[in-house]
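Reopening this one. Same input as before:
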Amino acid sequence: MKKLVKVEEIAGEGLLALLGENVLIFGVNYIYAGKLVGVNDTCILLENGGIVYETGDFNNKSYKDFQKVSDQLYVQLGAIEAFSRGKE
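Same output, byte for byte:
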């Protein structure tokens, strides 16, 4: 038996809710981090973005191995598997 589900879109939710904050982006191949400064239909923009090669303990204030890539790092939305607030 099929169960009907009501889908409700909430404005300003998801990545948009994290604009201006440090984020942690789990991608298909890499883990990215930086300050989320832009979101559009195809990609996000991370300020001082880089790749997190080793997170370390999530309770720590910084990543164990973060390597900055660029002052402006773009990540394709299609490559994002999960995201959350990040570390400083």
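So the earlier flakiness isn't reproducible anymore. For the record, The chain is about 0% helix and 50% strand.
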